[in-house]
Design goal:
The chain is an alpha+beta fold. It has one domain. The protein is built from seven helices and four strands, in the order E-E-H-E-E-H-H-H-H-H-H. The chain has a two-stranded antiparallel sheet with strand order 1-2. Strands 3-4 form a two-stranded antiparallel sheet. The two termini are about 20 Å apart.
Length: about 190
């Protein structure tokens, strides 16, 4: 199986007999490979003893636990890709983006609209408000264009994971296999 993890550690949740999350274990890539990609020893399955993941003589990992784990991996991969796109923008700048978008929309509808943040940014940059808004639109479009394939890949894989998990026609072993075989990388 070709499995790409974009994070160094993964949280794995294990449930008790009532399917309530009981344990959470952080795994590194090598441990994940050993316990989730390599075949288990005959008659063994994954379990926790003393807070450590190990092979135990128990029932297989619950489908719910696999679902939760794979959803966490998928979300972590999306966040890693998004962080890569956002690496040049400090949090303080990103915190103004919704205001900038709102004011840009208001300005494009009515050039006499009050857009104090955009007006101040344009003035401090020494450009006209109209030129600043045109440049802002181009930056927004560029960002959205770069994010769209990653977001679409995340949404497709998230929906696939939900569909497998919620498919009443599949046996648990079939669900486990389909979930395990999913490629959670977000190349786009």
């Amino acid at each position: 199986m070709n499995y790409l993890l974009d994070t160094e550690t993964i949280s794995v949740f294990f449930s008790n007999d009532n399917n309530a999350p009981e344990h959470c274990v952080e795994l590194d890539k090598d441990t994940y490979k050993k316990f989730y990609l390599d075949a288990p020893p005959e008659g063994k399955c994954r379990g926790i003893i003393g807070g450590k993941l190990t092979w135990v003589d128990k029932t297989p990992v619950l489908v719910e636990d696999m679902f939760l784990y794979h959803m966490e991996v998928l979300k972590a991969n999306f966040e890693a890709k998004n962080a890569q796109l956002m690496r040049w923008y400090p949090d303080s700048e990103r915190s103004t983006w919704s205001t900038q978008r709102e004011q840009l929309s208001a300005y494009r509808k009515d050039t006499d609209a009050s857009v104090p943040l955009l007006s101040q940014l344009a003035a401090l940059r020494g450009v006209s408000l109209d030129d600043f808004c045109t440049a802002l639109e181009a930056r927004i479009e560029d960002h959205d264009t770069k994010l769209a394939p990653v977001l679409a890949a995340f949404q497709l894989k998230r929906d696939e994971l939900f569909n497998i998990f919620n498919n009443a026609q599949l046996l648990d072993d079939e669900k486990r296999q389909l979930i395990t075989d999913m490629d959670l990388s977000l190349e786009g």
